[in-house]
Amino acid sequence: MSQQGQTPTIEQMLALAKDESLLSQAGFSALAAAVQNHQITVNMNQNMGVPATSYTAKRVLFLVMMVDDSGSIRAADNEQPVREAHNLILDELEKSKEGGEILVFTRYLNGTILNAFVPIEQAERLNASNYNADGGTPLYDTQAEILAMAVAKAMEFSAEIVKVQVIMIALTDGKDEGSRNYTRPEQIKPIMSDVLSSEDPAFIALGWGINNGDTDFKEIFTKMGYNPSWVMTTGATGSEIRRGARVASRSAVLASKTAANFSTAAKAGLGGFLP
Predict the structure, then answer these.
(1) Is there a contact between 17 and 188 (Cβ–Cβ < 8 Å)?
(2) Which pLDDT score, from 0 to 100, does residue 23 have?
Protein backbone atom coordinates (compact mmCIF):
# COMPACT_ATOMS: atom_id res chain seq x y z
CA MET A 1 0.00 0.00 0.00
CA SER A 2 1.04 3.60 -0.54
CA GLN A 3 1.58 6.21 2.11
CA GLN A 4 -1.46 8.26 3.05
CA GLY A 5 -2.33 10.84 0.40
CA GLN A 6 0.29 9.69 -2.09
CA THR A 7 -0.53 8.27 -5.51
CA PRO A 8 1.83 5.48 -6.61
CA THR A 9 3.54 5.88 -9.94
CA ILE A 10 2.57 4.20 -13.18
CA GLU A 11 5.84 2.25 -13.11
CA GLN A 12 5.23 0.96 -9.58
CA MET A 13 1.70 -0.16 -10.33
CA LEU A 14 2.57 -1.90 -13.60
CA ALA A 15 5.30 -3.80 -11.78
CA LEU A 16 2.72 -4.76 -9.14
CA ALA A 17 0.32 -5.87 -11.90
CA LYS A 18 3.00 -8.24 -13.14
CA ASP A 19 3.82 -9.47 -9.64
CA GLU A 20 0.13 -10.08 -8.95
CA SER A 21 -0.29 -11.86 -12.33
CA LEU A 22 -2.73 -9.34 -13.78
CA LEU A 23 -0.14 -8.82 -16.50
CA SER A 24 1.66 -11.75 -18.05
CA GLN A 25 5.26 -11.35 -19.15
CA ALA A 26 3.97 -10.83 -22.68
CA GLY A 27 1.48 -8.17 -21.59
CA PHE A 28 4.03 -6.41 -19.38
CA SER A 29 6.57 -6.38 -22.19
CA ALA A 30 3.97 -5.11 -24.65
CA LEU A 31 3.30 -2.12 -22.39
CA ALA A 32 6.97 -1.16 -22.26
CA ALA A 33 6.78 1.08 -25.33
CA ALA A 34 3.83 2.96 -23.84
CA VAL A 35 5.85 4.14 -20.84
CA GLN A 36 9.37 4.37 -22.23
CA ASN A 37 9.02 8.03 -23.20
CA HIS A 38 9.81 10.07 -20.08
CA GLN A 39 7.51 12.97 -20.91
CA ILE A 40 4.57 10.65 -21.61
CA THR A 41 5.16 8.87 -18.29
CA VAL A 42 5.35 12.17 -16.41
CA ASN A 43 2.07 13.21 -18.00
CA MET A 44 0.48 9.91 -17.00
CA ASN A 45 1.64 10.24 -13.40
CA GLN A 46 0.25 13.77 -13.22
CA ASN A 47 -3.20 12.60 -14.31
CA MET A 48 -3.98 9.70 -11.99
CA GLY A 49 -6.73 11.61 -10.19
CA VAL A 50 -8.32 10.63 -6.89
CA PRO A 51 -5.82 8.67 -4.77
CA ALA A 52 -6.96 5.30 -3.48
CA THR A 53 -5.78 6.17 0.01
CA SER A 54 -8.48 8.87 0.28
CA TYR A 55 -11.23 6.52 -0.91
CA THR A 56 -13.58 4.99 1.66
CA ALA A 57 -16.05 2.82 -0.31
CA LYS A 58 -15.44 -0.87 -0.89
CA ARG A 59 -16.19 -0.82 -4.62
CA VAL A 60 -15.23 1.50 -7.46
CA LEU A 61 -16.10 1.62 -11.15
CA PHE A 62 -13.72 3.31 -13.55
CA LEU A 63 -15.23 4.58 -16.80
CA VAL A 64 -12.29 5.02 -19.17
CA MET A 65 -13.14 6.70 -22.47
CA MET A 66 -10.92 7.17 -25.51
CA VAL A 67 -12.53 9.70 -27.88
CA ASP A 68 -11.39 10.23 -31.46
CA ASP A 69 -10.55 13.87 -32.17
CA SER A 70 -9.16 13.35 -35.67
CA GLY A 71 -9.92 15.73 -38.51
CA SER A 72 -12.20 13.21 -40.19
CA ILE A 73 -14.70 13.68 -37.35
CA ARG A 74 -14.91 17.37 -38.21
CA ALA A 75 -14.93 16.69 -41.96
CA ALA A 76 -17.97 14.45 -41.51
CA ASP A 77 -19.67 17.17 -39.42
CA ASN A 78 -19.74 14.80 -36.44
CA GLU A 79 -18.10 16.84 -33.69
CA GLN A 80 -21.40 17.60 -31.99
CA PRO A 81 -22.75 14.02 -32.21
CA VAL A 82 -19.50 12.75 -30.68
CA ARG A 83 -19.79 15.31 -27.88
CA GLU A 84 -23.36 14.20 -27.27
CA ALA A 85 -22.35 10.52 -27.31
CA HIS A 86 -19.69 10.98 -24.63
CA ASN A 87 -21.97 13.11 -22.50
CA LEU A 88 -24.94 10.76 -22.77
CA ILE A 89 -22.87 7.84 -21.49
CA LEU A 90 -21.70 9.89 -18.50
CA ASP A 91 -25.17 11.28 -17.78
CA GLU A 92 -26.84 7.86 -17.85
CA LEU A 93 -24.22 6.31 -15.59
CA GLU A 94 -24.43 9.20 -13.15
CA LYS A 95 -28.24 8.90 -12.95
CA SER A 96 -28.05 5.16 -12.32
CA LYS A 97 -25.22 5.26 -9.78
CA GLU A 98 -25.76 3.03 -6.79
CA GLY A 99 -23.24 2.04 -4.11
CA GLY A 100 -19.62 3.05 -4.46
CA GLU A 101 -18.14 5.63 -6.75
CA ILE A 102 -17.73 6.05 -10.48
CA LEU A 103 -14.48 7.72 -11.50
CA VAL A 104 -14.17 8.99 -15.07
CA PHE A 105 -11.13 9.17 -17.27
CA THR A 106 -11.53 10.80 -20.71
CA ARG A 107 -8.64 11.11 -23.11
CA TYR A 108 -8.73 12.25 -26.70
CA LEU A 109 -6.97 10.23 -29.35
CA ASN A 110 -4.34 12.95 -29.82
CA GLY A 111 -3.34 13.16 -26.17
CA THR A 112 -5.53 15.70 -24.39
CA ILE A 113 -6.79 14.42 -21.04
CA LEU A 114 -10.14 16.00 -20.21
CA ASN A 115 -11.03 13.97 -17.11
CA ALA A 116 -8.32 12.41 -14.97
CA PHE A 117 -10.10 9.82 -12.79
CA VAL A 118 -12.54 12.28 -11.25
CA PRO A 119 -15.94 11.53 -9.63
CA ILE A 120 -18.55 11.32 -12.35
CA GLU A 121 -20.56 14.22 -10.95
CA GLN A 122 -17.46 16.41 -11.38
CA ALA A 123 -16.48 15.09 -14.80
CA GLU A 124 -16.35 17.62 -17.61
CA ARG A 125 -18.71 17.05 -20.49
CA LEU A 126 -17.57 17.66 -24.05
CA ASN A 127 -18.47 21.02 -25.56
CA ALA A 128 -17.39 23.32 -28.37
CA SER A 129 -14.67 24.85 -26.21
CA ASN A 130 -12.92 21.69 -24.99
CA TYR A 131 -13.41 19.30 -27.93
CA ASN A 132 -12.30 20.21 -31.43
CA ALA A 133 -11.51 17.41 -33.86
CA ASP A 134 -8.48 18.45 -35.87
CA GLY A 135 -5.80 15.81 -35.15
CA GLY A 136 -4.60 12.51 -36.54
CA THR A 137 -5.47 8.91 -35.65
CA PRO A 138 -2.73 7.37 -33.46
CA LEU A 139 -5.15 4.65 -32.42
CA TYR A 140 -2.73 1.96 -31.26
CA ASP A 141 -0.30 4.22 -29.39
CA THR A 142 -3.14 5.89 -27.51
CA GLN A 143 -4.86 2.59 -26.77
CA ALA A 144 -1.67 1.23 -25.19
CA GLU A 145 -1.11 4.35 -23.10
CA ILE A 146 -4.71 4.31 -21.86
CA LEU A 147 -4.39 0.63 -20.97
CA ALA A 148 -1.25 1.43 -18.98
CA MET A 149 -3.13 4.08 -17.01
CA ALA A 150 -6.20 1.89 -16.49
CA VAL A 151 -4.13 -1.06 -15.25
CA ALA A 152 -2.09 1.17 -12.95
CA LYS A 153 -5.16 2.83 -11.47
CA ALA A 154 -6.89 -0.52 -11.00
CA MET A 155 -3.87 -1.91 -9.16
CA GLU A 156 -3.60 1.20 -6.98
CA PHE A 157 -7.17 0.71 -5.74
CA SER A 158 -6.90 -3.08 -5.49
CA ALA A 159 -3.89 -2.63 -3.22
CA GLU A 160 -6.18 -0.73 -0.85
CA ILE A 161 -8.63 -3.67 -0.79
CA VAL A 162 -11.21 -2.00 -3.00
CA LYS A 163 -13.28 -4.04 -5.46
CA VAL A 164 -12.33 -2.60 -8.86
CA GLN A 165 -14.25 -2.81 -12.12
CA VAL A 166 -13.26 -0.99 -15.29
CA ILE A 167 -15.35 -0.18 -18.35
CA MET A 168 -13.22 1.04 -21.25
CA ILE A 169 -14.89 2.57 -24.30
CA ALA A 170 -12.90 3.40 -27.43
CA LEU A 171 -14.66 5.52 -30.07
CA THR A 172 -13.05 6.13 -33.47
CA ASP A 173 -14.04 6.77 -37.07
CA GLY A 174 -10.86 5.53 -38.75
CA LYS A 175 -8.02 3.06 -38.86
CA ASP A 176 -4.70 3.85 -37.24
CA GLU A 177 -2.64 6.58 -38.85
CA GLY A 178 0.30 8.07 -37.04
CA SER A 179 1.18 5.61 -34.26
CA ARG A 180 4.92 5.31 -33.74
CA ASN A 181 5.40 2.70 -31.03
CA TYR A 182 2.56 0.35 -31.92
CA THR A 183 2.15 -0.02 -35.66
CA ARG A 184 0.02 -3.19 -35.71
CA PRO A 185 -3.15 -4.02 -33.76
CA GLU A 186 -1.66 -7.36 -32.76
CA GLN A 187 0.85 -5.51 -30.57
CA ILE A 188 -2.00 -4.43 -28.30
CA LYS A 189 -3.50 -7.89 -27.96
CA PRO A 190 -1.25 -9.32 -25.20
CA ILE A 191 -2.20 -6.41 -22.93
CA MET A 192 -5.91 -6.53 -23.75
CA SER A 193 -6.03 -10.31 -23.38
CA ASP A 194 -4.52 -10.03 -19.91
CA VAL A 195 -6.95 -7.42 -18.63
CA LEU A 196 -10.05 -9.06 -20.11
CA SER A 197 -9.16 -12.39 -18.49
CA SER A 198 -8.70 -10.77 -15.07
CA GLU A 199 -11.46 -11.26 -12.51
CA ASP A 200 -10.22 -8.94 -9.76
CA PRO A 201 -9.81 -6.24 -10.92
CA ALA A 202 -12.28 -6.90 -13.73
CA PHE A 203 -12.43 -5.20 -17.12
CA ILE A 204 -14.85 -4.71 -20.00
CA ALA A 205 -13.62 -3.15 -23.26
CA LEU A 206 -16.08 -1.77 -25.79
CA GLY A 207 -14.74 -0.95 -29.26
CA TRP A 208 -16.94 1.42 -31.24
CA GLY A 209 -16.29 2.33 -34.85
CA ILE A 210 -18.13 5.03 -36.79
CA ASN A 211 -18.45 3.73 -40.33
CA ASN A 212 -16.23 5.56 -42.81
CA GLY A 213 -16.93 3.26 -45.74
CA ASP A 214 -13.59 1.44 -45.91
CA THR A 215 -12.56 0.31 -42.41
CA ASP A 216 -13.41 -3.07 -40.89
CA PHE A 217 -13.65 -2.06 -37.24
CA LYS A 218 -14.62 -5.55 -36.11
CA GLU A 219 -11.36 -6.86 -37.53
CA ILE A 220 -9.23 -4.05 -36.10
CA PHE A 221 -10.66 -4.20 -32.59
CA THR A 222 -10.60 -8.00 -32.55
CA LYS A 223 -6.94 -7.99 -33.59
CA MET A 224 -6.29 -5.62 -30.68
CA GLY A 225 -7.76 -8.24 -28.37
CA TYR A 226 -11.30 -6.95 -27.89
CA ASN A 227 -14.01 -9.56 -27.45
CA PRO A 228 -15.98 -9.51 -30.75
CA SER A 229 -19.23 -9.42 -28.77
CA TRP A 230 -18.12 -6.03 -27.41
CA VAL A 231 -17.42 -4.41 -30.79
CA MET A 232 -19.96 -2.37 -32.72
CA THR A 233 -19.99 -0.27 -35.87
CA THR A 234 -22.57 2.45 -36.28
CA GLY A 235 -23.45 4.66 -39.19
CA ALA A 236 -21.87 8.07 -39.53
CA THR A 237 -24.96 10.24 -39.21
CA GLY A 238 -25.69 12.15 -36.02
CA SER A 239 -28.74 10.05 -35.24
CA GLU A 240 -26.81 6.79 -35.72
CA ILE A 241 -23.99 7.97 -33.46
CA ARG A 242 -26.50 8.94 -30.78
CA ARG A 243 -28.14 5.52 -31.14
CA GLY A 244 -24.73 3.93 -30.60
CA ALA A 245 -24.29 6.02 -27.47
CA ARG A 246 -27.56 4.66 -26.11
CA VAL A 247 -26.33 1.11 -26.71
CA ALA A 248 -23.04 1.87 -24.95
CA SER A 249 -24.75 3.62 -22.05
CA ARG A 250 -27.31 0.85 -21.46
CA SER A 251 -24.64 -1.82 -21.40
CA ALA A 252 -22.44 0.26 -19.09
CA VAL A 253 -25.36 0.97 -16.74
CA LEU A 254 -26.19 -2.73 -16.50
CA ALA A 255 -22.58 -3.62 -15.76
CA SER A 256 -22.28 -0.89 -13.14
CA LYS A 257 -25.13 -2.07 -10.93
CA THR A 258 -23.37 -4.79 -8.93
CA ALA A 259 -20.28 -6.95 -9.08
CA ALA A 260 -22.46 -9.84 -10.27
CA ASN A 261 -24.02 -7.68 -12.96
CA PHE A 262 -20.57 -6.74 -14.20
CA SER A 263 -19.61 -10.37 -14.68
CA THR A 264 -22.90 -11.18 -16.39
CA ALA A 265 -22.63 -8.17 -18.71
CA ALA A 266 -19.03 -8.98 -19.59
CA LYS A 267 -20.07 -12.44 -20.77
CA ALA A 268 -23.20 -11.24 -22.59
CA GLY A 269 -21.63 -8.51 -24.70
CA LEU A 270 -23.64 -5.94 -26.61
CA GLY A 271 -26.01 -8.35 -28.32
CA GLY A 272 -29.02 -7.60 -26.16
CA PHE A 273 -28.68 -3.86 -26.64
CA LEU A 274 -28.03 -3.59 -30.35
CA PRO A 275 -31.01 -2.44 -32.45
Answers:
(1) no
(2) 97
